[in-house]
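Figure 3 (text version): structure tokens given as input.
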């Protein structure tokens, strides 16, 4: 169970020496694991270029939650399924090319309605012809 509170202010706009800073905010998260009762509290601070008219605290909270859905849906999958953080490719554009290929693989699997990317990768490794069908290279 998680409770989030967000306070935003544009009062520091003229005080900050930070280009395009329109608002600052404080986000407080309190999480209780229902199975264990373990409690965790966290406070984070942020700066946004969105004015108070474009993003009130409710919208800022929504934007923050969507950011984490991207993080969990893509970056976490890339790191856990492809072990991306331990990749040793560093020369020229190699790292960027590999990241693009990983993104392509994840996107193809999501288009094929894969829910669990790791399981879908294992399936594709064992059924290469079906995997090739995802990119239109096999008719089986």
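Below: residues designed for each position.
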């Amino acid at each position: 169970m998680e409770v989030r509170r967000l306070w935003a202010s544009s009062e520091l706009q003229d005080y900050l020496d930070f280009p395009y800073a329109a608002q600052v905010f404080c986000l407080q998260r309190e999480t209780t694991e229902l199975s264990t009762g373990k409690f965790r509290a966290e406070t984070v601070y942020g700066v946004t270029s969105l004015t108070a008219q474009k993003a009130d605290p409710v919208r800022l909270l929504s934007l923050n939650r969507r950011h984490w859905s991207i993080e969990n849906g893509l970056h976490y999958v890339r790191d856990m399924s492809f072990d991306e953080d331990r990749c040793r490719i560093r020369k020229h554009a190699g790292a960027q090319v590999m990241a693009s290929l990983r993104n392509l693989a994840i996107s193809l699997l999501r288009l094929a309605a894969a829910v669990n990317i790791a399981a879908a990768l294992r399936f594709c490794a064992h059924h290469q012809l079906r995997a090739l069908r995802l990119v239109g290279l096999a008719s089986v």
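The chain has two domains: 1-72, 87-140.
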